[in-house]
Amino acid sequence: MAKLQPPRGTHDLLGEEMRRYAHIIEKARDIFRCYGFSEWATPIFEDTRVFARSLGETSDVVSKEMYSFLDRGGDSLTLRPEGTAAICRALVSNSLTQTLPQKVFYHGPMFRYERPQKGRFRQFHQIGAEFIGANGPLRDAETIAMAKDFLASLGLENKITLELNTLGDAESRHAWREALIAYFSRYKDQLSKDSQTRLDINPLRILDSKAEQDKQLLGEAPLYADYLNNNSRQFWDELRNYLTAFNVSFVENPRIVRGLDYYSHTAFEFVTTELGAQGTVLAGGRYEGLIEEMGGPQIPAIGWAAGIERLSSLMTLDEAAKGGVALLPLGDKALLRAIEITHKLRQAGIKVALEVKGNMKKRMDRVLQSGASHAVFLGDEDLTRDVVQLRDLAQREQREVPVSQLVETFKQV
Questions:
Q1: Each residue of 140-150: pLDDT tens digit?
Q2: Which residues are annotated as a binding site for L-histidine?
Q3: Residue 389: which of 370, 376, 379 has the closest Cα?
C-alpha cells in the first residue's frame, strides 16, 4: 500500500509551524481584547447560498474555487472559503441585529480549490475581525489601527505598508461604474474572456483582473476620486485625519477595489515586498449590504482578514522556551512517590517530565537534550526522609530539598 499523504494543497500543522500558529492567535487575542472584540466560531461548512450571495455568483471563488457538495439529505453545502459571510450569517441567525455594535474576531481553516503554490493552499488558515454596526469613518480608522497593532505585535511593523483607497457611497459608485463601462466598452475586443463577461455583470472586477491584456488597459481607466460626491469626499477626509490621530501611516492606492456592490467607502491592504507576488498580508474594507443579503436589516460594518500562513512566513520567532524540571525516580517505590510529586508540581504550574525509561545515563542524556533547567532525583534513602536531590543543570550544583518545600523552591528559581 502506498504511503498516505495529506491531500494536495493541504498541510499538517506540527512542531514549529504549530507553535507559530498558536503564537499568532495568542497575540491577536491580546490585541483584540484591548479593542473590546470578542471571539466567535462558526461551522466550517455552511449553506452554499451564504457564499454564493455574499461573494457574487460571477466571482472566481464562487464559479471556480468553492468546495461545494450535496449532503445525504440533498442540501447544497460549501466548505467556507472566507469568514466574513459566515459571521454575518451568525449575527442574523442568532438574532443579534438589534444588539449593536458587535465587535467580533475569528480564526480557523478556509477552503478554496485553486492551484497550490508557495504561500497558497487549498486549505489555508485565516484570522479576521468584523466591527458590525460601525457608523462613520472613526470606526474604520479604529479597526485599521487594530490591524496595525496586531501586525506590530508579531514584529512585522517594519515589513508592511498600509495602502488605502475610498470607494465612495452608492451614488458615487454608480457614477464610476458607468464611466468604467463606457471606457472598457471601447476596448471590449482587447479584454480577456473573463473580463468581457465582467463588463456586462460587474465591471469593477476588471480592475482586479490578473490577465496581462487587462492590466495594459488599466492605466487610462477612470479613477474613483473623479466621481466622489461631497458626502464621500468628507468621509474620505475624516478617515485620513483619524488614521493620522491613531498614528497609522498610509499611502493612497486608487487601484484597491472591491468588486461587490455592498462594499463602500474604505478599502485597504497591508502589503509587503518580502513575499514575491503574494504581497498582500492583510486586507479589508467597509460593507453596508452584506447583512441584508443574509436576511437581516442593512447594517454598516468594516472588517479585515489575514492569512496565517503568510503571517507565519514573515515572522521571526524566538526559539521555543525549554526549561522545566525532569524527575528521575530510582526504583519502584520511588516511582510511586515520584508520580505524586510530579502531579503536585504540575498543579502548581510547573513544567515536569517524568523520566523512567532506561538506565540513568540514558535518562540524563534525554534530560540534557530536552533543555530542562533542573533534575530531581529520588531514591530509597530519600523516601525515608521525604526529601529529593535537586540538581541545577546549568550551575552543576546539587542540594537536598524537603518534598514539602519543592514547589516553593521552584517558584523562587
A1: 999 999 999 99
A2: 82-84, 112, 126, 130, 258, 262-263
A3: 376
